[in-house]
Predict the 3D structure of the following.
Amino acid sequence: MTQPHDYGAKLDFSKAMSYGDYLHLDEILSAQHPLSPDPNELLFIVIHHVSELWLKLALHELAQAREHVKQDRLAPAFKMTARASRVMEQLISGWNVLSTLTPSEYSLIRPFLGNSSGFQSYQYRALEFVLGNKSEVMMKPHEHRPELYSMLEAELRAPSLYDETLKLLARRGFAIAPEVLDRDWARPYTPHDSVEQAWLSVYRDTEKYWDLYELGEELLDLEDLSRQWRFRHVTTVERVIGFKQGTGGTAGVSYLRRMLDVVLFPELWKMRTQL
């Protein structure tokens, strides 16, 4: 029988860094602490841990993409946005696993959750801010953590990825209205006709504006997947708890359904009717 050493595999890690050492697996795999006696709680915790790790990567990639757009370096920005989209696909697939939790199983776990809720994920909130869905009131759940609040406030007041894209359009010579380019970045974005006209010009002459055209499509990929994530979220919640109030105090499914109406890059959608 072939043995591992026949392939030259290193077997002694008493004085060398192993796979587990590099990944700090002891810390990661010991971070799951179920509070209920129900064995299904491990599923609930692991899915949320995995989602937070994917969110960390998505934030990392989109922060880099935004900086590349700011510096007029679109080629590397495309790499980062494409990777963030693939991360979003992983986040969406997580709902498929969580939806295997039945109402009967979840009812045994829910009393142990207190008021904790994914609604309070500061990484998800930061992701929403990076993508332009700004809301100062959504920072309140983090007031008790000054370091998190400070991070979110900085992101709230920074230009979003779309804001930087619109500034790029202006630098490329498109007549973007001053009120779009010089505004309070902490406020929700209001669609503007000058932006729609700029995107129409890009999409009507893709050969001339190929990199901007590609950027528009990369942004649409991100929003498309964000919408799919929200849809899978509301569907999974309705499947598991029906129309009960969420543990975080929201109205549950009815609240999540309102989130389906969020539009991140409005002109990129609206101008398609005019093409």
Notes: The first helix runs from residue 19 to 23. The mean pLDDT is 94. Residues 134 and 188 are 5 Å apart (CA to CA). DSSP finds 13 helices and no strands in the chain.
